[in-house]
Amino acid sequence: MTTTPPSPSPPRPGSSASSAATMTTTTTGAHHSQSQTSSPVSGPVQKPSPPPVDILPIPAAQTYAHVHPALLLALYALRFPSMMADPVSEMITQVPLLAVAQVVYVVTCLPAKGTIVTSTVTAAGEGGVEGTERRAVSGTHGPAGTGVVKSGKVGYRRKHHGHGKGDGIGSRLTAALLSLTLTFLLGTPVLAILLVLFGGPLTTHSPHTILCAMHMSLLSSTALIYVYGVDGAVWKEVYAFARPADAVWGGALGTGVGAWLGAIPIPLDWDRPWQAYPITILTGAYIGFAVGSLISRTPLLYGKRLSFTAPEEEQHEKSN
């Protein structure tokens, strides 16, 4: 008797195909999910705006930052009779004096662009506490204006100093001279055009306009270029009056506002020699620089920005 072995049962129709399809779908879905998770979100990274500029934390800088505006006003007042007698000759005489004074100011009191400034003092001795060191970056070197705080070593005494890496006297003096050059080459023509646009004579008094613009440029632009260089983002904020208040921006803004207010007495029918163009404009620029440099460092204004929008609109713009 011959026994026939049982034949294997045929596979269910579609079971193998459906299983393979399920595995393929699962694998594809897992791969898609993994690729979505691992792929970084790409988008434009907005560079943060540099923070307000602090005066260097050394006694000489802190003292001269208060003396400098008063010194400029005193020199200008001393030469004011000569200014009324011959404005062109006197402005030419004062240009090199003002340039030297501004170079001394920025080198002594302000951090040059890209320098690292150490600003705190701690001492740790026997049973002392670990010191800390605060470093601030001027301009846009790295994350703009980021302050870094890191622990010091026990038993190491740090002295209070205001100059850091890349901040030697030679590099600071070079940066100041470059700032002075850009001030003459770029700032003077721009301010001369603005003086004409705001009502200055176009076809006459050209030396008066150019020299007045040169003085205003030295007052307002030297420190800005020294600290921020030619960073486009910062200068957009300058043109939009959106910089936070500090000694640098306060002096520049005060120069412009003072010159604008100084133009008011010119058309008045008082027939005074000091009403001649551009004496009152230049006087207002000097006074505005001194006032702006000093009050913008006070706690009431330091770090604040001019706001041209309502708080609700500003909040809505930030949320978007």
TrEMBL record:
The chain crosses the membrane at residues 175-198, 218-235, 247-268, 274-295. It comes from the Eukaryota. Keywords: Endoplasmic reticulum, GPI-anchor biosynthesis, Membrane, Transmembrane, Transmembrane helix. GO terms for biological process: GPI anchor biosynthetic process. It is found in: Endoplasmic reticulum membrane. Pathway: Glycolipid biosynthesis; glycosylphosphatidylinositol-anchor biosynthesis. Its main location: endoplasmic reticulum. Residues 14-39 have a biased composition (Low complexity). Residues 1-13 have a biased composition (Pro residues). It holds the Pfam family PIG-F. InterPro entries: GPI_biosynthesis_protein_Pig-F (IPR009580). Residues 1-54 are annotated as: Disordered. It is a multi-pass membrane protein. One of its GO terms (cellular component) is endoplasmic reticulum membrane. This is Putative GPI-anchor biosynthesis protein. It comes from Byssochlamys spectabilis (Paecilomyces variotii).
